[in-house]
């Protein structure tokens, strides 16, 4: 029976288990978007901690696509070169390195959460002196600001849209050079691609707005551009918000997500990572253990593609049950991996019956901690 400790085949590579570090912004770069020692230690310790897949935080495909001036980026060869030692280390520790490629759309140019999370205008700076910028939106008028202040926004024109597609393609090429095995396109949480998907934030009347086909066009074009340069033997994931949690209005919902997942599979996407929400302050999401899993389950039942579940997974047995019961092919763990970087090893210890096999999972340097 397939369980959380079963290997996951990822084309030419294989994850040693089905527990992944969910992408989590660290806001710990200088405004150049280059990784720092923080990233090396943060991602490296989770690889040491037994995660089958170590996914980076949302990594901006262009400077304007950063949420804050301190986000990680991959818009130049220098970024790729600086990320390479991290992917090497993750691989040495038995993890599969993945990168989440992101454009924050009209949720860009903000202060870091610990500085207040509010928009930084193009003429303003954050407490570190980093400048803000004009942000890109499918339809600026439709944007309901989360935090009171409105950022300076421009409606994406045809050139902007082509620029986004090209930036994703170039970012994927650089990710490959940097040694990543998985490219995940971030199309969730109210960022640019999700803003195009949802009728709440997209009221365009061109070929990128209106019908389901039009609203999903940009995501499909971005995915096709990434797939174009990402080798067949390496997987492409897409993170979606399974729903906007706005049932009282015309919004993005699970039925559209299932339909999109099928379209993505046809474009060569290997796994759809099902999160939710993040688009609008009126959202009413549930909370607690497995709070988004029913959405992942619906996508897995309705579409012909592997599915990742995320949200409220804190226990190895819980992750195991999700895989054993066929609710997900992969379990992404966020906050529990912040509380316990060794969650993967903890899972091996709790779920594996053979103590010798558990010891094998640990880095040789630490093995005496678990050998009898
Ligand atoms: C500090 C932090 C940063 C996050 N940054 C990202 C991100 O960069 N990209 C993303 O898709 N989700 C991001 N998320 C969401 C997580 O990946 C995850 O989906 C969410 O926390 C729910 O999973 P959990 O209950 O296991 O934490 C972030 C969450 C946290 C706590």
Rg from C-alpha positions? 20 Å
CATH C-level: Alpha Beta
Averaging pLDDT over every residue, what do you get? 95
Q: Report the bound ligands by name, code or SMILES.
A: flavin mononucleotide
* Biggest sheet statistics: 8 strands, parallel, barrel
Show unreliable segments: none
Strand order in the sheet with the most strands = 3-4-5-8-9-10-11-12
Q: What is the global morphology?
A: globular
Helix percentage range:
25-40%
Q: Write the element-wise H/E pattern from the N-terminal end onward.
A: EEEHEHEEEHEHHHEHEHEHEHHH
Protein structure class: alpha/beta
| Amount of beta strand | 15-25%
Number of strands: 12
Tally of individual domains: 1
Distance from first to last alpha carbon: 28 Å
CATH-derived architecture:
Alpha-Beta Barrel
Total of DSSP H or I helical runs spanning 4+ residues: 12
Give me the CATH fold name: TIM Barrel
The CATH superfamily is identified as: Aldolase class I
GO molecular function, one term: NADP binding
Pfam families: Oxidored_FMN
Organism: Natrinema versiforme JCM 10478
Keywords: Flavoprotein, FMN, NADP, Oxidoreductase
Description:
The protein is built from 12 helices and 12 strands. It has one domain (8-369): TIM Barrel (Alpha-Beta Barrel). The model has no long low-confidence stretch (mean pLDDT 95). It has an 8-stranded parallel barrel, surrounded by 7 helices. With 372 residues, it is of the alpha/beta class. α1 packs parallel to α2, α3 (158-178) runs parallel beside α6 and α7 crosses α8. α9 links the parallel β11 and β12. 34% of the residues lie in helices and 15% in strands. The protein is globular, with a radius of gyration of 20 Å. The protein has helices at 37-48, 77-92, 158-178, 192-197, 212-215, 217-229, 254-266, 293-302, 316-324, 335-339, 343-351, 355-361; strands spanning 8-10, 13-15, 19-21, 53-60, 96-102, 135-137, 153-155, 182-187, 236-241, 271-275, 306-310, 330-333. Bound molecules: flavin mononucleotide. Residues 22-25, 57-58, 100, 186, 188-189, 239, 275, 310-313, 333-336 line the site of flavin mononucleotide. Residues 9-352 form the NADH:flavin oxidoreductase/NADH oxidase N-terminal domain. Keywords: Flavoprotein, FMN, NADP, Oxidoreductase.
């Amino acid at each position: 029976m397939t369980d959380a400790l079963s290997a996951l085949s990822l084309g030419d590579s294989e994850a040693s288990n089905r527990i992944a570090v969910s992408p989590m912004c660290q806001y710990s770069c200088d405004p150049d978007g280059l990784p720092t020692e923080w990233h090396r230690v943060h991602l490296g310790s989770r690889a040491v901690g037994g995660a089958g897949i170590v996914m980076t935080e949302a990594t901006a495909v262009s400077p304007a696509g950063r949420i804050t001036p301190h986000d990680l980026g991959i818009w130049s060869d220098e970024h790729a070169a600086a990320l390479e030692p991290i992917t090497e280390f993750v691989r040495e520790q038995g993890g599969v390195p993945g990168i989440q490629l992101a454009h924050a759309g009209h949720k860009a140019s903000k202060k870091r959460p610990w500085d207040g999370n509010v928009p930084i205008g193009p003429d303003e700076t954050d407490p570190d002196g980093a400048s803000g910028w004009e942000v890109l939106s499918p339809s600026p008028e439709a944007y309901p600001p989360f935090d009171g202040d409105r950022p300076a926004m421009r409606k994406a024109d045809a050139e902007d849209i082509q620029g986004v597609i090209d930036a994703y393609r170039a970012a994927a090429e650089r990710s490959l050079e940097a040694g990543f095995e998985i490219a995940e396109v971030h199309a969730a949480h109210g960022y640019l691609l999700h803003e195009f998907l949802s009728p709440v934030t997209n009221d365009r009347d061109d070929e990128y707005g209106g019908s389901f086909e039009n609203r999903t066009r940009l995501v499909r074009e971005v995915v096709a551009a990434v797939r174009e340069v990402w080798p067949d033997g390496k997987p492409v994931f897409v993170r979606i918000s399974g729903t906007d949690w706005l049932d009282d209005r015309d919004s993005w919902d699970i039925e559209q997500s299932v339909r999109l997942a099928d379209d993505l599979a046809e474009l060569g996407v290997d796994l759809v990572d099902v999160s939710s929400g993040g688009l609008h302050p009126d959202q009413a999401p549930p909370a607690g253990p497995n709070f988004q899993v029913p959405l992942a389950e619906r996508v897995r039942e309705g579409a012909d593609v592997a599915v990742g579940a995320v949200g409220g997974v804190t226990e190895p047995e819980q992750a195991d049950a999700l895989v054993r019961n066929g609710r997900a092919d992969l379990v992404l763990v966020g906050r529990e991996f912040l509380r316990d970087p060794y969650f993967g090893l903890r899972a091996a210890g709790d779920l594996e019956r053979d103590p010798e096999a558990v010891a094998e999972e640990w880095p040789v340097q630490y093995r005496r901690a678990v050998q009898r």
